[in-house]
Structures are given as C-alpha cells and as structure tokens.
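User: Batch of two.

Assistant: Item 1 of 2:
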Amino acid sequence: MLQEYQTVTHQFEPVFDEDSKVLILGTFPSVKSREQNFYYGHPQNRFWKVLANLTGCEVPGTVEEKKGFLLREHIAVWDVIAKCDIIGSSDSSIRNVVPADLSRVLDHAPIRQIYANGAKAYELYQKYAYPITGREIVKLPSTSPANAAWQMERLLEAWAAVKENLG
C-alpha cells in the first residue's frame, strides 16, 4: 500500500525552563510520538536510553517522568519543524516546511549549545533556523531505529558532548 503525504502540525510544546543549558532539536515527531503526544515515543528510539546513560539516571518511562528528567538535567527538547507535509514518519519525505519559532526557547533559557538529533534535523536547522538565530548547531547521529549503523556504544561516544555542556 502506497502511503500518501499528510499535512501535519506539531501538536505539543517544547520542553524547557529558565535553567535549560542545551537544546536538542529533532526534525518532526514520528507517528508514534504524535500518538503519545511527546518526543521520541517510538519504543526502539534510543534517545531516552542515551540521555539516561550519559546523566547516570534511570530511563524515564512516562511522559511526566520524561519531562521531569529533562528539566532536572537542564535539557531542552523541541523540533525544527512546526508544520510540514510528510509520509508517515519518514524524514526523507518532509516537504513544505514551516519552521518552529525557536526564539520561544532561545530567548528564555540560557542555552549554551544547540544539538541536532540526526543529519536531517541539522540540515533543516541550517536552512530555516540558522539565518534567524545566527547560532551554531552541532550535528549528532540520530537516535532513531532507522539509524541502525550506529550501535549504542558509538552513539554514547558521539553524544558525550551533550554531557559536557550540562555541567
């Protein structure tokens, strides 16, 4: 069955507060994340495992646990895209992008570094957000299950930079 493009609007808020030190940007929520109404909801996505490992914390399970974890660890999370046309969860299918207003986070939190969770988030940030923010972004390997080439050990090594900016 051929999937068709859907126009989808981001339905949940960024997670941050006045103590957030890093901002991690994805592209756009997957179908699973949209169903759960929160970031990185696919059970095979390694985002929560990677961050828990880096911070020495338990892997949060519920949406409330995840929000609490991010705020305690001074991590802001959002996506580059506010609205787009997409087929399922396929980043490569994204078109007709309406970028998110990142000033909502950047103007209210002392963000030391912005990170892209994957090459597509990096590419979209460079195209749509960098001209507005003027702030550099660091490209990290995606925690998505689609990025099977990156085993957990390699992901942890690459993502260690995040921890350095939290201290």
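Item 2 of 2:
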Amino acid sequence: MPAKPSVVIVNGSPRPRSRTGALLNVLANEIARVRDVEVQSVNIAEIGNHFGTEFNPASLAPELQRAIHAIENADLILAGSPIYRASYSGLFKHLFDLVDRDALKGTPVLLAATGGTPLHGLALDTQFRALFAFFQALTLPQSVYALDVDFNDGRLINDELAHRVSSAAELAAAHLESNRGHREASKNVSQAPVATAPVL
C-alpha cells in the first residue's frame, strides 16, 4: 500500500503556544477531513535553539536535519508565521535558508499568517510568495491571514475566517492530489529502462 501523502506544517512562531500554531493546526485538520494524509509539524519554538552559523546540512543538529528532510520531501507544505515588522519571523527565514534550493520545485504551499492589524496581511503576498518563488514552489492562490481578535484561548472564533480556512483547505487538498500524481509519474519515468539505439 502506498504511503499517505505528507503534509508538513512549518510554524514560524518562536512561542510554544501561539495563534499561528492554532491556525496551522486548524488548516491541517481541515485538509485531513478531506483527504487521508500524514501530518508532520516543524515548530521553530522546538528547534530554534539549534540554529547557528553552520550552513552545511551534514553538520547541523539532528533535530534540524529531520526538520529539513521533512520539508524537502513534503507533498504539501503549510507555511505560517506571525508577522513582525511586515515580514515573517527571522528563524522561519533561516530555516528555509537551509533547505535545498531545488527540493521544493512544484511543491504546493499553503500560506498562513497571524498579526495584530489587517495591514500586516499584505506580507503574505510581498514576503512569503517571494520566498517560495525562489524555490519554484507552487504557492496556492488562496492564503489565510488571521488577527489576534479571531482567537479566544487558542480557538478560532471568527465564522467568516473559519469558512475561509475550509475553502483554502479544500483547494490545498485538490493540489495535493495533483502533485502526488505528478511525483509518482516522475518517479516511474526516472525508473523506467532507457531504450538505446542499436550500434550500426
């Protein structure tokens, strides 16, 4: 039986309990409701103390190596961060500095962010999309931005936002299915024997 598609949450919040994490978990649960998937989480709050000046993957802490491996092999990435000074967190960016530049080609990425004011939502288009464009990843056209007031004790309480989350999750699930098929086809092509012309 083939393995379940891999959905990897990348939570850029430096706090163990955060609104960003809550939003990403809701998105993952919605995707899992539509499609049978395996969900993994990469949390900056858990691996941030392993960051340093080393950029050689072989020299990184095992926790970081496992996080990078999960990201590079994901069938779908849920990438989210709180917005600080009109951009994602610094450690979120540093994590992707360590990801192989060719590993995310064509990988669908659902973008999410949280912030204190509606204006910070622009960072999803000006910052997040630019980062994943470098990797030639497929950033989905529908992203999700949530304000602090949309949560109460870590629970989503905005019905309009909940509807947007469901819509984005359905879109992500559809792209996950498409990307999964494309990867399997590419794998089969790469493993197929190459026909050689006869030597005359």
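The helical segments are 19-34, 44-47, 62-72, 90-97, 123-134, 159-191.
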